[in-house]
């Protein structure tokens, strides 16, 4: 199980830049896990919490800085969804017998908003640059979370974790459809027929 956890967490995100000891799950997490929680389930829960939490500051900037009403609506929808989802993920973490340690602290990986990304977005010059950087950030984040959710659905064993992963896959795919097409001006939906 420890091998599955490490492989899923690092291989799925494709770029776990961490020290070697941080890539192994804590022994207590693996042995204390609830009976229906496999390594993939544990890895997904432990990764999703910081993925969601670290996007919140970006979402909080959007109503203050964006000139795009569609982006503002999407940010509000995501903020509401993530607030609820973080509580669900933390409940699953407790159910799995895991502590609150973030095994991904300090990691740089696709879709995970780090301090540099947040600083670049915060330091954007005008509203058009801000909207473009937020759209790029959201696209990478939503794509990665949809991919991680699909991996959990394919490889997880916990029904409760897979139920949440299904919701994540659907909501992140829907969020992607609301973003402007890559390179398009803000306010132009990537979905067919506009948005």
UniProtKB/TrEMBL annotation:
**Signal peptide location:** 1-17
What InterPro entries does the entry give? DUF305_CopM-like (IPR005183), Ferritin-like (IPR012347)
Keywords linked to the UniProt accession: Signal
User: Taking every annotated instance into account, which residue ranges of this chain make up the domain DUF305?
Assistant: 41-179
Native organism: Dactylosporangium cerinum
**Which lineage do the record's taxonomy fields give for this organism?**
Bacteria, Bacillati, Actinomycetota, Actinomycetes, Micromonosporales
Q: Which Pfam families match?
A: DUF305
Query: Can you name this protein?
Result: DUF305 domain-containing protein
């Amino acid at each position: 199980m420890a091998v599955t956890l490490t492989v899923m967490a690092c291989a799925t995100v494709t770029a776990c830049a961490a020290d070697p000891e941080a890539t192994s799950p804590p022994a207590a997490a693996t042995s204390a896990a609830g009976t229906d929680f496999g390594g993939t389930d544990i890895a997904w829960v432990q990764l999703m919490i910081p993925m969601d939490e670290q996007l919140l500051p970006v979402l909080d900037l959007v109503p203050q800085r964006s000139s795009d009403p569609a982006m503002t609506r999407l940010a509000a929808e995501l903020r509401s969804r993530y607030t609820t989802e973080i509580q669900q993920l933390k409940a699953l973490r407790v159910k799995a017998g895991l502590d609150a340690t973030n095994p991904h602290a300090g990691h740089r990986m696709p879709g995970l908003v780090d301090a540099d990304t947040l600083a670049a977005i915060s330091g954007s010059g005008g509203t058009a640059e801000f909207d473009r950087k937020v759209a790029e950030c959201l696209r990478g984040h939503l794509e990665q979370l949809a991919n991680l959710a699909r991996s959990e659905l394919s490889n997880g064993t916990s029904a409760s974790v897979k139920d949440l992963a299904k919701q994540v896959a659907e909501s992140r795919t829907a969020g992607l459809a609301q973003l402007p097409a890559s390179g398009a001006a803000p306010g132009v939906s990537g979905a067919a027929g506009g948005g």
